[in-house]
Specification:
Blueprint: E1 2-10, H1 17-35, E2 40-47, H2 51-59, H3 64-81, E3 88-91, H4 95-110, E4 114-124, E5 129-131, E6 137-139, E7 142-144, E8 152-161, H5 167-176, E9 181-182, H6 184-194, E10 200-201, E11 203-205, E12 211-212, E13 216-218, H7 220-225, H8 227-234, E14 240-246, H9 250-263, E15 271-275, E16 278-280, E17 283-284, H10 295-302, H11 304-312, E18 320-321, H12 324-353, H13 365-384, H14 388-409, H15 416-437, H16 442-451, E19 452-455, E20 458-461
Parallel strand pairs: 1-2, 1-14, 2-3, 9-15, 14-15, 16-18
Antiparallel strand pairs: 4-5, 4-8, 6-7, 8-10, 11-13, 12-13, 16-17, 19-20
Helix pairs in contact: 4-8, 10-11, 11-12, 12-14, 12-15, 13-14, 13-15, 14-15, 15-16
The chain binds 5'-O-[(L-methionyl)-sulphamoyl]adenosine.
5'-O-[(L-methionyl)-sulphamoyl]adenosine binds next to strand 1, helix 1, helix 7 and strand 14.
Length: 473
């Protein structure tokens, strides 16, 4: 079984475009993987522990439990509005997860992988991570991160996980699995820091999280990574992980996660897809920078399938600067290409044939070419998987070919027999398009399928409707 995962989202605020993006990528991948014949499940969830969540709830004067429930529901709404087709969702405050983390802690301790130590360093609450002094900016004695967050020096006795014990295993694994991290730049990035890894402090002085030892709480990242094991085992699934993550959380998902899997004698992931950031005017979109793009409004404005397509048409890995005119352009493009094709053909068929069954006559070379291209579309897309942007461009090109074919063949100006054949070729092509776009645009695909009926007697068109609303540029 292929186990696809999204990151689990911090519930210290409402979802923004970056969260919707990672979930859509994982969902589209998972749907294609299924379409191409592989057993697949998708898991998602929320990260509900850590200083950041506690601090925000205190600032808002809301009990932390209520604060979590409130924001958790927004992430659930996001899943539903974005049609994320997951098998299960985890919250790190779930009892089974807390028990799992404690059991894993005990197991690692019994194996000698956890030891007590003292940590002194600069802690970024926003990143929930210690930051190296060399990565900070000293503003007249006040240390700030590159994003301008003031960090504080923390000295505390806590527990460490012996990541360094597994360094050679990780290096060997990376060398034997050069395609494990996509895109390749990110794989190279991991290789570049793997030699400098240190043991990781995996507990904090008591705060909001899973209590452990005398007076400590499990470090939120250690707690969070284990979610993948909890949800897999909760659902009795066996298989390899394919993780979708943003580039900012790659370090945790390579060093700490890989070491943990080695220590637990668990299989290593099959693949990590690392997406770039949505930026606005070049700056990462984030709650803390206050430049968020509301994912719910995007769907209200453009319709879900246009937004999903917009997310998927770029190569995974690059940063993308968000601009309204770009999504408007995309919306126009789909309306003119796929939207126009479907509406034009179905309306013509209904006008000329009503709901009569279409039976083809003799094929011309142009007919055979288009039919062959349409049959090859699925296998071409399969060959290009997992490059979803390439799949999309195959589909776009094929829609272009169909539109060209209509203009050349002019079905409105032909004798009955010829019109029948042209329509038959086009409707078959549209049905194949509806199949192959279904992971990216599930409801558009369903809509098209509901307009056309195909059975043993042949093909006929039942009705036609506009697929995409037009939004002015
Ligand atoms: N809770 C951790 C993940 C733990 S996974 C075991 C976390 N949460 S997050 O809510 O801050 O971010 C979740 C995901 O959203 C990350 O993959 C992150 O990269 C992604 N994004 C957050 N802002 C983003 C953009 N502006 N653009 C694209 N994705 C970004 O980190």
């Amino acid at each position: 079984m292929d186990i696809i995962t999204t990151p689990i989202y911090y519930v210290n605020g409402e979802p923004h475009i970056g969260h919707a993006y990672t979930s859509v990528l994982a969902d589209v991948y998972s749907r294609y993987n299924k379409l191409f014949g592989n057993d697949t499940v998708l898991f998602t969830g929320t990260d509900e522990h850590g200083q950041k969540i506690l601090d925000t709830s205190i600032k808002l004067n809301i009990p932390v439990e209520d604060f979590i429930l409130r924001n958790r529901s927004k992430f659930y709404e996001l899943n539903s509005v974005y049609d994320i087709s997951f098998l299960d969702v985890i919250n790190t405050t779930n009892e089974d997860h807390k028990n799992n983390v404690k059991n894993i802690w005990d197991k690692l301790k019994a194996n000698g992988d956890i030891y007590q130590g003292e940590y002194e360093g600069w802690y970024s609450v926003r990143e929930e991570s210690f930051v190296k002094e060399s990565d900070l900016i000293n503003q007249n004695g006040t240390f700030v991160t590159k994003d301008g967050e003031i960090v504080k020096k923390v000295t505390e006795k806590n527990h460490f996980f012996k990541v360094t014990k597994y360094k050679n295993n990780i290096i060997e694994f990376l060398h034997n699995n050069k395609d494990i991290i996509f895109p390749r730049e990110r794989y190279n990035e991991v290789l570049s820091f793997i030699n400098d890894i240190e043991d990781v402090s995996i507990s904090r002085s008591k705060t909001w999280g899973i209590d452990i030892e005398e007076n400590e709480t499990v470090y939120v990242w250690f707690d969070a990574l284990i979610n993948y094991i909890t949800i897999r085992d909760r659902n009795n699934i066996q298989g390899g992980f394919t993780h979708f993550i943003g580039k900012d959380i790659l370090r945790f998902h390579s060093v700490l996660w890989f070491a943990l899997l080695f220590a637990l004698d668990e299989p290593l992931p099959k693949k990590l897809f690392v997406n770039g950031w949505w930026t606005k005017d070049g700056k990462k979109i984030s709650k803390s920078l206050g430049n968020v793009v509301d994912p719910f409004k995007l769907v209200d404005d453009y319709g879900l399938d246009v937004v999903r397509y917009f997310f998927c048409k770029n190569k995974i890995g690059s940063d993308i600067d968000f601009r309204d005119d770009l999504i408007k352009e995309t919306n126009n493009f789909i309306s003119n290409n796929l939207g126009n094709l479907v509406q034009r053909v179905l309306t013509l068929v209904l006008r000329k044939k009503g709901s009569n069954i279409l039976i083809p006559g003799d094929y011309t070379l142009e007919d055979t070419n288009l039919l062959n291209d349409s049959y090859n579309l699925i296998s071409d897309c399969k060959n290009d998987f997992p490059n979803i942007n390439k799949i999309i461009s195959n589909i776009d090109d094929f829609c272009g070919k169909c539109n060209f074919y209509i203009n050349e063949q002019k079905p409105w100006a032909q004798e009955d027999d010829r019109t029948n054949t042209i329509f038959y070729v086009l409707i078959n092509s549209i049905l194949n398009i509806s199949e192959v776009i279904s992971p990216v645009m599930p409801s558009t695909s369903d809509k098209i399928k509901s307009f056309i009926k195909k059975d043993n007697n042949g093909i006929f068109v039942e009705k036609s409707e506009i697929l995409f609303k037009r939004v002015g540029v």
